[in-house]
Amino acid sequence: MIEIDGLNRRILDELQSDGRMTNQQLSERVGLSPSPCLRRLRQLEEEGVISGYVALVDPDAVGLGVTAFVRVRLDRQDDRHLARFEGAIAAIPEVMECYLMTGEADYQLRVLVRSLAEFEDFLRYRLTPIAGVAQVTTSFALRPVVYKTALPLD
Fold it and tell me: What is the pLDDT of residues 49-85, one digit of tens each?
């Protein structure tokens, strides 16, 4: 397990704000020479602290203007039924996040679609046909208030 010391935190903070910077830029920002900075970066990647690099795409810019938060309750919560639901839901591209929950719902999903009609199709033809789905409750987001991708490392 890698130690997340002050330098590693600075490396992670910088990369969370700009994952495309060069090693030279990163080393200058965190106050290390390029070679030790690259060694630390590679170690963070190898240890799984950095799990990948992505481009953040604005959903509205690509026509995905409807965000739905969907709570799903299953008729049974044993391991076999949970695994079956999780496998099915992972294959649906509109599902951006899925969490196993405590409380009234078994799962909470964040779903992105183009329209309410597309959401209806998602419900009718993708979600509710999954074996074991007993109840679905949906709330629609009006607008994002806080959206962060950077983890609070301090």
Answer: 999 999 999 999 999 999 999 999 999 999 999 999 9
- Cα dihedral value 64, 69, 74, 78, nearest 10: 90
Identify the architecture of domain 60-140 in CATH.
Answer: 2-Layer Sandwich (3.30)
Cα radius of gyration (the chain): 20
pTM here is 0.89
What is the Cα–Cα distance from 99 to 108, expressed in whole angstroms? 5
From the candidate CATH numbers 1.20.1540.10, 3.40.190.10, 3.40.640.10, 1.10.10.10, the one assigned to the domain spanning 6-46: 1.10.10.10
Query: d(Cα 152, Cα 154) in Å, to the nearest integer?
Result: 6
